[in-house]
Amino acid sequence: METNYDKVEQSNGGKSMRFFEYLKKQEPSKENEEARKRIYKLHQLEGSLTYIERMEIIEEGKGSMEVEFVRGELSEGMTLCFYDNQGKKSGRGEILEIYIGKGEDKGRFSEQGNKGKIIFEYWQPVTDRFWNSQYLKEFTLEK
Question: DSSP secondary-structure letter at 28?
Fold first, then answer.
């Protein structure tokens, strides 16, 4: 069965575009094909999926990110797994606070389809691409 990676959408600075269009700008290579497969798999996995639009450090060990809640539910205290633009794990952390919508109303959990802000604690070690992470999933033990 052939997989159509073109149908996976990618968030790009607040503008959604098809994943294929995003990678089209890059030279074809084995690395890019492997990245496509990893990102496609992230979209297929059960559980939450959140696009990270922007991240910034608040203080050592603590950060903030603007996000789009795509699927599932995130809640305060949940352990997170961050992924970079190649679909590789870039770090882990915990949600401290969630704010929903443009008015940044404090919430206890995310609402699918909305944008919001997450204050989080991150745990060392993180990769050098951590602050460029683009995907967020709840951490689950792999089987």
Answer: P
Question: How far is the C-alpha of 115 from the C-alpha of 104, rounded, in Å?
Answer: 9
Task: Round to whole Å and give the CA distance between 18 and 143.
Answer: 30
Give how many domains the chain has, as a whole number: 1
Residue 68 near residue 60, CB atoms below 8 Å: no
- Confidence category of residue 12, pLDDT binned at 50, 70, 90: very low
DSSP symbol at 67: E
What would the pLDDT profile of 64-106 be if each residue is shown by its tens digit?
Answer: 999 998 888 888 999 999 999 999 999 999 999 999 876 666 7
Is 113 among the domain residues? yes
Q: How far apart are CA 27 and CA 17, in angstroms?
A: 18
Give the distance, in angstroms, between the CA of residue 92 and the centroid of all CA atoms in the same chain. Answer: 11
Q: Which domain holds residue 120?
A: 5-138
Supply φ then ψ for residue 46, to 5 degrees: -70, 165
Q: Name the token pair of 119.
A: 């204050």
Strand partners, 75: 109
Kindly provide the b/e burial profile for residues 90-110, where b requires at least 16 CB atoms within 10 angstroms of the residue's own CB.
bbbbebeebbbeeeeeebeeb
